[in-house]
Design a protein that fits this description.
Blueprint lengths: L2 E5 L3 H13 L3 E5 L2 H10 L4 E5 L7 H9 L6 E5 L4 H9 L4 E4 L4 H19 L9 E3 L2 E4 L4 E4 L2 E3 L3 H11 L6 E2 H9 L8 H14 L9 E4 L3 E4 L2
Parallel strand pairs: 1-2, 1-3, 3-4, 4-5
Antiparallel strand pairs: 6-7, 7-8, 8-9, 10-12, 11-12
Amino acid sequence: MNRILVIEDEISIAELERDYLELNGYEVDLAATGKAGLSLFRDETYRLVILDIMLPDMDGYEICRQMRETSDVPIIMVTAKNEDIDMIRGLGKGADDYIEKPFNPNKLIARVKAHISRYDRLVSREQPKHEDIKVRGLFIQHSTRRVMVNNEEKVLTVKEFDLLALMASAPNQVFSKEHLLEQVWGFDFFGDASTVTVHIRRLREKVEQDPSHPEYIETVWGVGYRIKQ
């Protein structure tokens, strides 16, 4: 099933997105408000969500945050503002990508296909098996994609898990932002290294007792990040 949820209050833009998505073989549900979009999201199963930031009843950041409580499906946020802060806030709430209005519909379709394809690869059962990882109080179980810190389970998104698991697979090794971006998001990702910075911050908020004084995820200034053994 290739079903996509579009949450957009500008009817002309929503219909344009729907038309192009349907031309490319996707089924589309439209919602003009955040509450309507969340209701559909909770009742149906979607491959991807296209989410406008500015909605009449609630902003896209809050909608994204609520979606991430229960799902890891790709979320592309749409913004009318040409400001980096929108991208950073959106990624900080768990979005996978963002696109600015006005946008080329073919560019949107390319991103939709890329994110769905990448998500499918990440969750595929055909992925090679990995050994479980233990670094002091941090335990990562690949088979179930579970993360425990001092015997307390932490709920991570797909990319948060992959980012943490990659670094933890080689404790004390320094990973550059560019290398992490390439390995976790892939060569065809449309964002930049700031995406890694945002996800590292979110990881620290989840796995560190005091994110401002991390015990596990260490910043190596001017180079990148590493997991301390």
